[in-house]
Amino acid sequence: MTLRFGVIGTGAIGREHIKRISNKLAGGKIVAVTDVNQASAQDAVKSFELDAVVYPNDLALLAADNVDAVLVTSWGPAHEASVLAAIEAGKFVFVEKPLATTAEGCMRIVEAEMKHGKRLVQVGFMRRYDSGYVQLKEAIKNNFIGEPLMIRAAHRNPEVGENYTTDMAIHDTLIHEIDVLHWLVNDDYQTVQVAYPKKSKHAHENLKDPQIVTLETKGGIVITAEINVNCKYGYDIQCEVIGEEGIVSLPEFQSISFRKNAMFGTHVLMDWKDRFIDAYDKELQDFMDSIKKTGEPNGPTSWDGYIAQVTADAAIKAQDSGEKETITLQEKPVFYSKPTEAVNA
Ligand SMILES: NC(=O)c1ccc[n+]([C@@H]2O[C@H](COP(=O)([O-])OP(=O)(O)OC[C@H]3O[C@@H](n4cnc5c(N)ncnc54)[C@H](O)[C@@H]3O)[C@@H](O)[C@H]2O)c1
Ligand SMILES: O[C@H]1[C@H](O)[C@@H](O)[C@H](O)[C@@H](O)[C@H]1O
User: Fold this and answer.
1) Is the pTM value of this prediction over 0.90?
2) What is the ipTM of this complex?
3) Domain spanning 143-269 has what CATH number?
4) For ligand 2, atom 11: residue with the closest CA
5) Residue 322's Cα: distance from chain center in Å?
């Protein structure tokens, strides 16, 4: 069975996913596309030689009988409406982060999905599929470093545009660490605080960059995460888990080493698209495979999207207050507690 996809949003990541579903992965086909910029949707069909219909909007696309699943790859503020409409239409949804831009919006999706009665939604938290993070999780689970005590993480982008605002450091960038780090140590967040080191001369006038976010978990683990989105030298993701018996670190992206001009070195990637390319492939392959096998997606859930958004909201509050803010989650519904496979365990 081929899963027939409609794509809502044919920008950067929408196109990446169209390419991988059409040319690389097994079991999916793009049959419909839409974008508020219709020229972009038409261009995507032409560029990737898709046998797909261009629809005027998400609702028209969702009404098409031959669409089994949608990729929601539009701008964050548009996600909630498309995801709710897809659930209403009983279609599977792969939605890029954020699930919705508010915790209330995420909860509306959670409630709609529970009302539907089975899982339809997977959130694009692809780091859970990255082999480096999977190895870290295995090591922690197998007690290789004893009890984890601290995590040091860094999320560095080479540069950002003028439209990137201080709060985006949390809800657009740190959101990946917010999701993957509590998953890594199987713990819940309790508090968050944000500090601002000396500002980088590369940050535009209204942007506070870099930032240091400190998260504490209920189990007492202290996480410090650096967000540094004008670091210039590359796209660099770091994670070190310090345990009672040792330390485990995220492997560097594999690249040749070189000896040249009196230097010994290796390359650093410049683009997020390359850094997690295998994880993007795996998350979408898993989405298709698990729907075929079990009738439901298997990866990060709407509840994971809700946890990330509540945490991001508290962190944004902490950006303004300078105080330690509390992270308060509602109780996890049984619907999202049933055991799934490794990625979600
Ligand atoms: N998982 C990741 O690592 C990752 C990486 C990049 C982007 N993202 C997320 O993916 C989403 C898209 O990011 P991008 O970089 O591709 O942005 P983009 O601006 O390149 O593309 C977004 C596209 O959506 C279209 N759009 C906006 N509102 C729409 C609507 N209501 N209906 C249909 N189309 C609409 C825009 O016209 C644009 O073509 C964002 O939520 C972003 O946070 C995730
Ligand atoms: O800061 C960027 C992250 O490093 C990427 O992984 C994407 O999520 C992108 O949307 C963010 O702007």
Assistant:
1) yes
2) 0.98
3) 3.30.360.10
4) 173
5) 26
Q: Which are the contacts of 138, defined by CB distance < 8 A and separation ≥ 6?
A: none
CA of 159 to the centre of ligand 2 (A): 11
Q: Which residue has the tokens 């683990």?
A: 221
Biggest CA pair distance of the chain:
64
Do 103 and 311 touch, CB atoms closer than 8 A? no
Domain boundaries, the chain: 3-127+278-307+330-336, 143-269
Q: Residue 23 is inside which H or E element, if any?
A: helix 12-23
Roughly how many angstroms between the first and final C-alpha of the chain, as a whole number? 27
Tens-digit pLDDT profile for residues 195-232:
999 999 999 999 999 999 999 999 999 999 999 999 99
Which CATH number does 3-127+278-307+330-336 carry? 3.40.50.720
Distance set, CA 218 to CA 150, 182, 221 (Å): 13, 10, 8
pLDDT tens for each residue of 282-309 = 999 999 999 999 999 999 999 999 999 9
Q: CB neighbours of 237 closer than 8 A, spacing ≥ 6?
A: 154, 155, 156, 250, 275
| Among the bound ligands, the one closest to the CA of 230 | 2
Q: Which ligand is nearest to the CA of 158?
A: 2
